[in-house]
Amino acid sequence: MNPIRVYPLKFTTQDSIVNSPGLKKKPQASDRTRTFQLNPPSQQSRSNQKRYQTGGINNQDEKIKIVTQKKLSLLQPSSYSPKKRVISNNNDKPDIFKFSNQQNEPLSPTKLPNLKRSESSNTQQEPQARIDLSQSQKRSKRTDASNADNIPQNKTSFLKFYQDSSPKLRSIQSRVSSQAIVQEIQIKPKMPQQLIMLHGRSTSQAALVNSNGTEDDELQDFVQLFLSKSQAGQNGNKQTKTNQDSVIISNNFGGIKNRYLFSICDGHGVYGHYVSQLVKRVLPTIIDQQIKTFIGKKEIDIGEEFYTEVEKCFQSGYQKMSKDLSSCGIDIAFSGTTCSSVFVSGNNLWCANIGDSRSIFIEQNRDSNKWKIIELSNDHKPDLPGEKKRILVSKGRVQPFVAENGQNIGPARVWLMHEQFPGLAMSRSFGDYVASTVGVISDPELIYHKMNSKCGFLVIASDGVWEFLSNEEVQQIICSYWSAQMNAKKIDEMMESIVRESTKRWQEDDEVIDDISIIIAYFS
Fold first, then answer.
1. In degrees rounded to 5, what are phi and psi of residue 70?
2. What value does the mean pLDDT take over residues 89-110?
3. 406: pLDDT confidence band, cut at 50, 70 and 90?
4. Peptide bond into 422 cis (omega under 30)
């Protein structure tokens, strides 16, 4: 047989493929679409195609009109029937458009961004409409890509596009916004001259007071400076242990500028630091609530005439704090804390104390300029007559620790009647559940003092200071740094000197060093 030679067919254009015999196939939908896209009627943008109605519409223009009408139908829901725009065909250029309810006119997609929201048209709007129409024609002379990006896809984007593209609307909005700003400035009320804003030491607190000063004289603030310091102790191996002391300083207490709450909490036991930290977080809020309950929210100085009310405030506040500790989840069987709190209202000092932390007030006499010590608290030791009587009535036992040879070691402690625990060295405290069963209570002892001197120093410290330093020794240290022009640096030097001397005494007389915490507030 003779071999058959097969020559490959080469096609240079798309038309040669179509006209080749034997390669014709039935046209498909995709082919029709491709033919439509490859033969655009012009190089103008899609938005310029079929801008106005003309008399002769060929088959290609029919397809363009169908596509544009479908795009318009996506702008609004099917249940919405928009009022269509009518453009006259008298001239080549369109006349001013109007709104109509006629349904036989096709939509013009290129004028959609310039649709007016008002249905009524008048002669005053016609010049502006012509300007908008001419500007829209200039904007439509962009590339196909830019027009495609700006075509609104839904009703929301259409409205936004209309607002952004209408120069008239932008001018109205800018004019209205400027008028609103001017109007707001004009109607803004002026602050009366007799009212001024005063800021206290705490920038978060502000009080609107009268410049006449009638109420300001009643709430004079005597506290000028206050600082605190807390130092962790050491165990027998000279290693720093966990600091179980907590310091509480609350100025502008209860939102009143001349009220303060100063407290030292000395924790003891395995979980004593947790107890003192909880008291630090919770007790100020409780005391503030009790003051507002028994005395009220008035901005007044709480003096001696309110002794009964203040006593109720601290009694109920400390009892609530003790109740909260019993249900807080901390193991307080053999752990607790002292609390020596001083509430300051003007020149009135109220000290509520439990335990062996101590508060004193060192004041200078107006006439003789001599210094004297005012004891604001008593150390609650188990061997005090009143404290010991209560413990014995509760079937407890008070005595120092007894060594195997029968020798008493250390201070008096609280024990169960027939057991060698808990051995607490104080008769009042927060926590200490076991000791509370034999007469250890959390009821505070309240002492009041009114400052009538030229100046004074409030000193609150834990037993890390008072164990080896007496009130007189602390007074001597403070007075050695005093001057008529007191500042924070001198207060800090006072505290450093007291802490340094206390640490030295512990190192000389004991194998361990207790936690040392101190607050000093200067009154003038």
1. -65, -40
2. 42
3. confident
4. yes
What's this model's pTM, rounded to 2 decimal places? Answer: 0.61
Q: Mind listing the pLDDT tens digit for each residue in 275-322?
A: 999 999 999 999 999 999 999 999 999 999 999 999 999 999 999 999
Place of tokens 């409205």: 159
Q: Which amino acid is at 384?
A: L
Domains of the chain: 28-178 (no CATH), 224-379+437-523 (3.60.40.10), 381-425 (no CATH)
How many other CB atoms are there within 10 angstroms of residue 257's CB atom? 22
pLDDT for position 236: 85
Angle, helix 167-187 to helix 126-140, in steps of 10 degrees: 120
Per the structure block, which two tokens stand in for 407? 């020798």
Model confidence at 238, in pLDDT bands (50, 70, 90)?
Answer: confident
Instruction: Give the helix/strand (H/E) hosting 260.
Output: strand 259-268
Cα distance between residue 264 and residue 248, in whole Å: 6
H or E, element range at 135? helix 126-140
Residue 253's Cβ-count burial label (10 Å; 0-12, 13-18, 19+) is: buried
| Long-range CB contacts for residues 67-70, cutoff 8 Å, separation at least 24 | 68/107, 68/109, 69/106, 69/107
Per the document, the length of the chain is 524
| Residues whose CB is less than 8 angstroms from the CB of residue 237 and which lie 6 or more positions away in sequence, other chains included | none
- pLDDT at residue 213, as a whole number: 37
Tokens representing 49? Answer: 């195609």
Q: DSSP letters along 463-487, please?
A: HHHHTT--HHHHHHHHHHH--SS--
Residues 6+ apart with CB under 8 A from 252: 200, 201, 202, 205, 259, 260
What is the Cα–Cα distance from 461 to 150, expressed in whole angstroms?
75
Average pLDDT, integer, range 502-509: 95
